[in-house]
Amino acid sequence: MPKQKSKRIFSFLFLLPLFLLKISLIYLLFFSIGDLEENSHPETSIFLPLSIQNTIPVQVPVAVAVPVPDPERNQTLYHSFTSRKMSRKKRMSLKILRPGARSKQFAQRATEFFDPLNVNNNTRSCNLSFFMTWISPSRYFSERELFSIESLFKWHPTACLLIMSTTMDSSKGSELLKPFLNNGFRVVALSPDYKYLVKRTPAETWLKQLRKGEVDQGEVSIGQNISNLIRLLVLYKYGGIYIDTDVIVVKSMYGLKNCIGAQTVDAVTRNWTRLNNAVLIFDKKHPVVLEFINEFASTFDGNKWGHNGPYLVSRVVRRVTNQVVVLPPIAFYPVDWSQIGGLFRGPGSQSKHESQWMREKLQWIQKESYAVHLWNRESRGMKLEKGSIIQRIMLGSCLFCNSTRFQSILALHTS
Question: Where are the domains of the chain?
Fold first, then answer.
């Protein structure tokens, strides 16, 4: 009996370290790895908290206490680590806001561009101001964006176009815009001075907080949201027409004033249900644009796509319906994003019903539309087929119709 008892005690002492090791691992995994799965960012999920690396025991003597990880400490260390990593990433994304030599000259250069007294004898004066924004590198400013500019000047030959872009305000950007400049059209890309543009607007405080890291940028690209803001700032500062770079102009906009386009309408009441900010037309210092800027600064949410763009203008206009003209969808958005593919297809690839839709849609666009939004996110990779609505629109809105570049675009997409 004593021998069996001593044997059991020996077995117990031998197995106790293994048992404690198992318990500590289960405890560790339950409190620490669970936090990683729930709270980690995809880019940082491959890293374990430092406390996990330092507390997993390899061999535990009986007389030594097993270190039990503190779940709160693990979570604090993990979030401290990831917040430092994420803050570096956020700071990198804010590089577009850093002032440079060119951006500091923005106010002067913009004044010289728009002021008719500064126009020399070889340059046309402008009687309408257009604006675009471009946040991406200049190498992505492709044939589609260039054709948008081409269509703009086709219908507004004496207009001015200011492209708000640091990347296009470069030798590469100048080379891309050279065909327009060589033909006397007034276009320039300027690096924006954000501090100058937000001055004495509700966005001034917001921008300061953003630079200090006091604004949650969210998951939506900060560049996209800066683009949403800057179009409002330049319209408020100078007045004119803002258009996205994936918009083809199909008719003169000289008669439009203080208006915005509806994207969708109610099928029964025909009242608009959502507006869009791809085309905005407002006078200088217009109160509705100021309210757009105020809404941006006071309700900014970087985690909801469209919250600071199309949904923003929709929220504001619902409150100030008597101060702005809302044009029907056909004005700028003749098809919704889900139907844009129909404008790229030719009659040969369509059914009888689709061909009828195509003929009616083309006639309607030619009669009622001022521009066609291409919904770039959806249509970027679509093939332009021969005889399609988009091809016919391009043929009617081209400026350099006989150029090798334009002919190669049609040949490339319709072959």
Answer: 2-95, 98-333
Q: Where are the alpha helices (DSSP H) in 29-135?
A: 34-39, 50-55, 71-93, 106-114
Report d(CA 336, CA 138) in Å as an integer: 28
Helix or strand holding residue 194 (H, E): helix 194-198
Q: What is the CATH number of domain 98-333?
A: 3.90.550.20
* pTM for the whole structure: 0.76
Reference 375, options 292, 306, 284; nearest CA is: 306
The pLDDT of residue 322 is: 86
Is residue 45's pLDDT more than 80? no
- Asked if 127 contacts 240 with a C-beta cutoff of 8 angstroms, the reply is no
Q: How distant, in Å, are the alpha carbons of 118, 126, 152, 197, 326 from that of 281?
A: 25, 16, 14, 18, 11
Q: Please enumerate in sequence order all residues whose Cβ is within 8 A of that of 147, keeping only pairs 6 or more positions apart, or say none.
A: 248, 394, 398, 406, 409
> Are 258 and 240 within 8 A, CB to CB?
no
Q: Which residues pair with 135 in a beta bridge?
A: none
386 versus 205: the higher-pLDDT residue is 205
The string of pLDDT tens digits covering residues 244-287 is 999 999 999 999 999 999 999 999 999 999 999 999 999 999 99
Strands of 283-382 (E only): list them.
325-327, 371-373
